[in-house]
TrEMBL record:
The keyword Metal-binding does not apply. PROSITE patterns: CHROMO_2. GO terms for cellular component: nucleus. It comes from the Eukaryota. The lineage of its organism: Eukaryota, Fungi, Dikarya, Basidiomycota, Agaricomycotina. Residues 83-146 form the Chromo domain. This is Chromo domain-containing protein. One of its GO terms (biological process) is chromatin remodeling.
Amino acid sequence: MLSLENIKTKRPMKKLDVKQSGPYKVVRQVGSHACKLELPGTMAGIHDVFHVSLLRPYHPPMFPGQQAEPPGPVEVDNVGESWEVKDIVDSRVNKRSGKLEYLVQWLGYEGSDDAVSWEPVENVDGANDILAKFHELHPGKPRKGRVVRSRARK
């Protein structure tokens, strides 16, 4: 059985959520304190190696004729959701962090508050064609590998 204490599910309240899930087959031991599990497709996006403190042995029911209804699949909230970039509108160097940021227009969010946002360069690395087109149209704008920081004291 796998403890779900560090896994975010789609349930609205952690307090009322399922505490354990499984049983899952242990594929192999990874190092001395971790095991790789065979997870179902509903848990896609979750790394399949867990520390042994999160695992408990499965105990079948004490009375063989007593069959509890198995719980439904655990629906995991994919933390690594990716949004698709529609266009890049601008670029800048953040004054506080000194890091390059792009003003990104997101696909499918037109007309909402999330339609456009300033994002660090790491969040738009997958949109290489759109980045290239933006810098072709705006060659003077800050770009990755060409960020110049001012050394003047503030």
